[in-house]
Design brief:
- The protein contains seven helices and six strands.
- By secondary structure, the protein is α+β, with helices and mostly antiparallel strands.
- It has two domains: 54 residues, no CATH class; 136 residues, Histidine kinase-like ATPase, C-terminal domain (Heat Shock Protein 90).
- β5 and β6 form a beta hairpin.
- It starts with 9 loop residues before the first strand and ends with a strand.
Length: 209
């Protein structure tokens, strides 16, 4: 790596957790991305890119299709799709001590790009690992394995409450991805964890698939 003998350096996860002899087995897992830095809080000099590979669940083939999830009871599917898109914001802002802000913007200005739905919140943000897990189809946020940064361990699903904003919409890990591709052709998630200076971005598109 071209490190001089007298030069100090650290190895960290993308969440800026320093790898040590004590936590090596916990943090260094198959497929994990690591940073080689001069210090834990060093600014990144340029953008890094991480590829997500996963084997789709068989339900992707045997139960896929918008009808199965949105319209099986003859409902208008668009409100269900929009509800799915704000689910991450409900989860991210659930522990806010101050103002809980969630904005939904419909963008139709051709000069700014293609039409889009933007959901913006002031929540705690997601790490690259959490963004990675969100991308996996049929992987519920309440049962994700190997995500040592999960905020949902020990979660007990509450009883249904009318008009309750409890971020329980995507309990089965289905809706977010189907909602995206029901509304449009691609998804771009940009997130900055509250305790980190790094901004993480995830792009999913039909073109890439």
């Amino acid at each position: 790596f071209g490190i001089a003998t007298e030069e100090n350096f650290v190895i960290t996860t993308t969440s800026r957790k320093e790898i040590t002899e004590d936590n090596f087995r916990e943090l260094v897992q198959d497929g994990v991305t690591l940073y080689l830095l001069q210090s834990v809080d060093q600014m990144l000099l340029l953008a890094t890119k991480e590829r997500i590979d996963f084997l789709p669940h068989y339900d992707t083939l045997v139960k896929s299709g918008m009808y199965e999830y949105y319209a099986s009871e003859g409902q208008n599917p668009l409100p269900f799709a929009l509800a799915e898109l704000i689910d991450n914001s409900l989860s991210a802002t659930s522990r806010n001590t101050g103002i809980r802000s969630i904005q939904i913007k419909l963008l139709f200005d051709d000069s700014q790009g293609k039409p889009a739905v933007a959901v913006i919140d002031n929540g705690r943000g997601m790490t690259s690992k959490q963004l990675n897990n969100w991308a996996v189809y049929r992987l519920s946020k309440f049962t994700r394995q190997g995500d040592f940064e999960s905020d949902h361990s020990g979660y007990v699903r509450p009883l249904p409450v009318p008009r309750s904003l409890n971020s329980d919409i995507s309990y089965f890990g289905v809706g977010g991805k189907q909602a995206v591709f029901f509304v449009g052709q691609s998804a771009r998630m940009i997130s900055k964890p509250a305790n980190s200076q790094d901004v993480h971005e995830l792009v999913l598109s039909k073109e890439d698939f």
